Amino acid sequence: MKDTFTHKGMRKKLVETLRKKGITNEAVLEAINKIPRHWFMDSGFIDHAYVDKAFPIAAEQTISQPYTVARQTELLEVEEGDTVLEIGTGSGYQSAVLLEMGITVYTIERQNELFKKTSRFLPKIGYRPKKMVFGDGYKGLPEFAPFDGIVVTAGAPYVPKPLLAQLKVGGKLVIPVGEDVQIMTVFTRTSDTHFEKNEYGEFRFVPLLEDKN
Ligand code: SAH
């Protein structure tokens, strides 16, 4: 797999686009600048890797739009040394962004084909999540909780209670909530029993599915 000067140049431009769209977290922008996003896409779509768009990957799923990845990561408000649970491993790109920022990553994927592909691929390019799990993200990973942040990368029809329960006090759940269109919603755990809710506009994701196939 190659990462040429052309690719690097295109990534710099993508980072500038993300800045113009309002992303300010330097660690997030630096991670996007470093990671060869074209490696995460099927060869037919490589030309589109540095356009700010979502694209198809295997199993009818998508690699999220770079702006969306950047925004969700920024909203987590995590830093080096923190621990994050990701729901929806997909291509592994969001995991790579978090790992590049020095975050410990746990990630869950319910599509077996994608799970197998991405669990082989990420370590091959040097990104090693602490755990990659084939399973149902609605349940989270209680055995490894609590987390500093939880990021859901598929559209959730409702907010799964187990995910709120698996946050540290001070931690944030970043979750797009809704059916056809989702509202990016952040729940901050302010105490054992209290959560503060904030909303950050409309996004479109593939659905967070219940029941494994
Ligand atoms: N984070 C990914 C985005 C993938 S799209 C990336 O950076 O590429 C959303 C992913 O969520 C898909 O791979 C889909 O299979 C997965 N998904 C959907 N419902 C799920 C569930 N209940 N549990 C875990 N993963 C789920």
From TrEMBL:
Record keywords, A-Z: Cytoplasm, Methyltransferase, S-adenosyl-L-methionine, Transferase
Any GO MF annotation of the entry: protein-L-isoaspartate (D-aspartate) O-methyltransferase activity
GO BP term, pick one: protein repair
Domain of life: Bacteria
Active-site residue list: 64
Gene Ontology terms: cellular component: cytoplasm
One Pfam family hit: PCMT
Top enzyme category: transferase
Localization, UniProt: Cytoplasm
Primary subcellular site in the record, as a coarse category: cytoplasm
EC number: 2.1.1.77
Catalysis performed (reactions): [protein]-L-isoaspartate + S-adenosyl-L-methionine = [protein]-L-isoaspartate alpha-methyl ester + S-adenosyl-L-homocysteine
Record flagged with keyword Methyltransferase: yes
UniProt similarity note: Belongs to the methyltransferase superfamily. L-isoaspartyl/D-aspartyl protein methyltransferase family.
HAMAP family: PIMT (MF_00090)
Stated role: Catalyzes the methyl esterification of L-isoaspartyl residues in peptides and proteins that result from spontaneous decomposition of normal L-aspartyl and L-asparaginyl residues. It plays a role in the repair and/or degradation of damaged proteins.
Name of the protein in question: Protein-L-isoaspartate O-methyltransferase
Organism expressing this protein natively: Halomarinibacterium sedimenti
